[in-house]
Amino acid sequence: MAFTDRRKFLFEAGGGLSGVALSWLLGQRGLLAAEGAPAACANAAVKDSPFLPKKPHFEPRAKAVISLFMSGGVSQMDTFDPKPALEKYAGQPLPVKDDIVVRQGHPGPLMPSPFAFKRYGQSGLPVSELFPLVGSHADELAVIRSVVWRSNDHVMAHYELASGTVRMGAPSVGSWVTYGLGSENQNLPAFVVVYDAHGGPFGGPANWSAGYMPAAYQGTVFRSAGDPIMDLKPPAAVPEGQMKERLALLEKLNRLDAEKNPANSELAARITSYELAYRMQGCAPQAVEIDSESAATKKLYGLDNPVTAPFGRQCLMARRLVERGVRFVQLYHGGLGIQNTDTWDAHGNVKENHTQHAAEVDLPMAGLLTDLKARGLLDETLVVWQSEFGRMPISQRGLGRDHNPGTMSIWMAGAKIKGGQAIGASDEFGYKAEQQIVTTHDLHATMLHLVGMDHTKLTYAYQGRQMRLTDVYGEVIPQIKAV
Fold first, then answer.
1. Cα–Cα dist 397/348, whole Å
2. pTM
3. pLDDT of 98-110, one tens digit each?
């Protein structure tokens, strides 16, 4: 067969290679499993892997991170930052001197929360009735009530929380963590992303991009149901001999191209990914095989309920991944599906929207915290709950709330963090952060600190500058730093 176009040839030769078993190639490198044996899940000794474990700057408090991202913008005064003043001054204008900037217009008067708050645990930390099960873990939560963003746009706010900048093209925090620490398991990706069954979050893959770093550090997307990665198994219709011939030629062309373009990290990352794909054949299915879990564990995560099962699978998968040495797991709840109500973007009716989505995640998140603690993993795992911004204390068309980057509540748990505390404060209406303002750079500095890295020393040389996740900013939150 004659090919006149090299790109077409490479596509046809490699079109079926998305995650296939590169048995011939791996055999040449001594990475092939024994004859007739399945790919082993024992941690492989892989030479020159970018994910080999690296020493932290100091003793870490956590070995892994699980990020629970609620896409769409969660309302702080309806979840973890109660504001009695909204009830007292309901129906009155927001008393501020500056102009109120709203995303969609139609600013209304102050609107009280439709949800009651209750104090939980020995600490008495107040949590909305939306999260009674998460509230039962109040003594393990450190709620930060004074987080601020730079944009009220979904996409830019997603990018800021992912990478510290509102522009796409910078490495995500997961990429920085895996770049700095590597992975404890060479048979699985160091950085895994699992998003909502409705679809991906605002901004798409740029949220887990490696940016200007080598492409190998970008997040690997797993599906929460079915095969974790599509085309992980080799196509049955391709004979072994033909596969070997394809791989031999593809390997030769890749190496020639790599020699001509040594700075092409995309090609190097693809070769690394192919090698990892082979090892993953035996390990990835096991890592996400939640059917093997006990009935009690499945119930703990809400897999017996169609409302909680989708996010429950994501949370259970996250536990299984960190248990196997994956360094950073990013879960998204709220996807760009058919309806706007598929996210937490409560413009139309905050009561209906947040009631629906809280019911989907409360039990799975509580189950995750319970399970991690029971297995002795919570003290060595950082769990972060977050969203891209908060909501306005004023109403939008009487029932909804518009975007508000002026203040947001997030919480952290695990990693030996002192729980049962509220850090920082917003004003009496929940409009602006006013005590101990926490920026995205502060959050990232704190996350890096907990996994044993000094954010000022974790750098990557790019365009003549030593780049940082936190740029030239960032302070570790002292209450989180304290043990």
1. 8
2. 0.87
3. 778 787 877 899 9
